[in-house]
Amino acid sequence: MKRITVLLISMLLCLALFGSCGKIANVLPEESQYAVTSAGAEDVNAATYAMIIESVDAFTTDNTSATKTDPSINTTKSPSKQEVIPTKTQRFSTPAASANDFAFRLSKVLLQNNGKQNFVSSPYSVWLPLAALVNATDAANKPALLAALSASGFSEKQLNDAAATMLHNLTGAGAREYEPEYPNPLCIANAIFVDKKYTLNQSFKKTFADSYQGSFQSVDFLSPSAVKTINDWASKNTDGLIKNIVREFDPLTVAAIANAIYFSDRWSWEFDPSQTKKGTFHGTSGDTDAQFMLREGDKQTYYEDEKIQAMPLQFKTGGGLYILLPKSGDANALLSSMTSARFEEIQNGSSYKTGKLLLPRFSIDSGIMNLVNTLKVLGVPLFDKDAAPLTGGLVQENIDVFLASAVQEAVIKVDEKGTTAAAVTVMTMETTSMPLPTEPFSMVCDKPFAFVLYGNGGQILFTGVVNQIN
After folding, report:
1. Residues pairing with 291 in the sheet
2. Residue 21 gets which letter from DSSP?
3. pLDDT mean over 55-66
4. What is the CATH number assigned to the segment(s) 89-266+364-431?
5. With contact defined as beta carbons under 8 Å apart, do 259 and 128 qualify?
6. SS3 state of residue 252
């Protein structure tokens, strides 16, 4: 313990001596420098704290024998419910970086049952609604949800501000930096549909609108019209690619939160269709015919190591599609093992090369994927019916609310001209029981009564009294 204390004090003294971001980076381990130098001054403390914890973890692991020989050392401290325990999934300089970590973690779990099938998903379409629901989750379950999102250590405000910034950069003025004359190829929509019996919490409604560009609609989940409303919304926001994401709703449904992403852009360097040739694709289920597109020339961004070949195909308005080819032939294993740090390594390690790429045209439709078990594996606590973690934060009525379902459909098409992709995620929230019915009324007009007839704008046109029926 003394050596740990000395280590901590030494590191803190180093931080005090080297106050600026650049100087701090010089005393950090190499793998921690990027997080600090790219984070900005406001993120230095978080990144440095993560570095200290990681160093202490490593020191403790290397000296476990000393701990075991001293029975006076308490190694079973139980944290309080509100205490946030640092883990590897939370050591990110920004919530945006944590969203990328969540993307690879979600993909890994989904791939566990994928087998030999094609696979496509939109992790960001899952991350956004869950990030918004952090604002409606009770205090007891909020730390677990943040951890599931790889966002432990960040406050609600930091998460909301990051979501707002990301949406601005992706779809707002920030997305027009390089090609301002082209229309934005990316559309992102968020919406929450609340049953007409309930009133959306005003604080959540404001945050959802301000930080997540979210819209609000009142629906009747007991009516088939609710299914049509949400499916129409999905179709509208994916240019008709996803039309039937939901088929029915449970009568206990309180609300449904939805995200839609639609992307369509051309390559900055399009493939020449005349050079596309028929070839054989050696798939996991056997050989099939495919149409291979050719790109050949100088100054192509390329990465290679002992495990993979990688190449980004740039889009006209920015961003790109990274093609990752495992030398082992196991693409499932490649994506399952991918982390945000590894992906960053590939990006930073790429350089200009002369060569050629043969890529088959392809299209994938995931069908409707049930995400409940996947999100439970990732630690999302909102499905606990007994805890009802969304009680009080989602609607104003005093009812127990929990996350009951989560589904997604994603599609992608890649050809000589570019890429089109879309995804819709819908998560429904239910109450544990129906609200108590109101006392039925009885109005029997078997005695004199009055009437008022009014027109548009409430203007009274007729009044009268019925004292007798002739």
Report:
1. 278
2. H
3. 32
4. 3.30.497.10
5. yes
6. coil
Strand pairing category for 286-304 and 351-360: antiparallel
Burial code of 345-360, b = ≥16 C-beta within 10 A, e = fewer? ebeeebeeeeeebebe
Give yes or no for a contact between 150 and 166, defined as CB atoms under 8 angstroms apart.
no
| CA separation for the pair 92, 306 (Å, rounded) | 27
Structure tokens at 58: 């490593």
Q: Which residues pair with 217 in a beta bridge?
A: 193
**pLDDT averaged over every residue in the chain:** 77
CA–CA distance, 252 with 204 (Å, rounded to integer):
21
How do strand 253-266 and strand 214-219 relate by DSSP bridges? Answer: unpaired
Closest CA to 121 of 371, 310, 319: 371
Rounded-to-integer distance, Cα 347 and Cα 341, Å:
10
What are the domain boundaries of the chain?
A: 2-77, 89-266+364-431
Which token pair is 34?
């990027």
pLDDT tens digit sequence for 356-374? 898 999 999 999 999 999 9
pTM of the model: 0.73
**Mean pLDDT calculated for residue range 424-433:** 93
